[in-house]
Amino acid sequence: MKHTQPTRTASFRALTTSVALPWGEGLILLTVAAILLIGG
Questions:
Q1: How far is CA 13 from CA 1, 2, 3, in A?
Q2: In the 8-state DSSP scheme, what is residue 3?
Q3: pTM to 2 decimals?
Q4: CA distance linking residue 17 with residue 39, whole number of Å
Q5: Mind listing the pLDDT tens digit for each residue in 1-40?
């Protein structure tokens, strides 16, 4: 089970990074917009 895990985690990590990068930018924009709305 440990022999198949590295490849699975590597592919999962690549998939999560490819999905997390645009989501991270979106979250940053959302937080900035929320701060502007609350501050203003």
A1: 18, 16, 17
A2: T
A3: 0.42
A4: 32
A5: 566 667 888 888 888 878 777 777 888 888 999 999 998 6
